[in-house]
């Protein structure tokens, strides 16, 4: 059981670090597209790792099923939402940042 606890802790910490790096990317990257890419990728991976870490800690099967459903829902909706946001921004004329752009 100690191996499961350690693995669960590692997954939870790794997920938290992924989400933290996404937050840093959201604050530091120069334009909408790079920001949404950073958040979209790290959100999916970070939430997945946290949910897997929680799944290892649960003892009730119904809670485990709920965590798996949430994991599947996140895996399907997060990349789709990121794609739709980027597509809508491109369609509305949001410009891509270029090196030397004074908007930064």
Characterise this structure.
The protein has helices spanning 2-28, 32-57, 61-91. It is an all-alpha fold. Helix 1 packs antiparallel against helix 2 and helix 2 runs antiparallel to helix 3 (61-91). The chain is elongated, with a radius of gyration of 17 Å. It starts with a helix and ends in a 13-residue tail after the last helix.
Residue fraction in strands: under 5%
The span between the termini is: 51 Å
Radius of gyration: 17 Å
Tally of strands:
0
Stretches with pLDDT under 50, minimum 5 residues: none
N-to-C order of helices and strands? HHH
Figure out the total of helices. 3
**Would you tell me the structural class of the helices and strands?**
mainly alpha
Major sheet, described briefly? Answer: none
Q: What is the 3D shape?
A: elongated
Mean pLDDT: 91
How much helix is in the residues?
over 70%
Write a short abstract of this structure.
Helix content is 81%, strand content 0%.
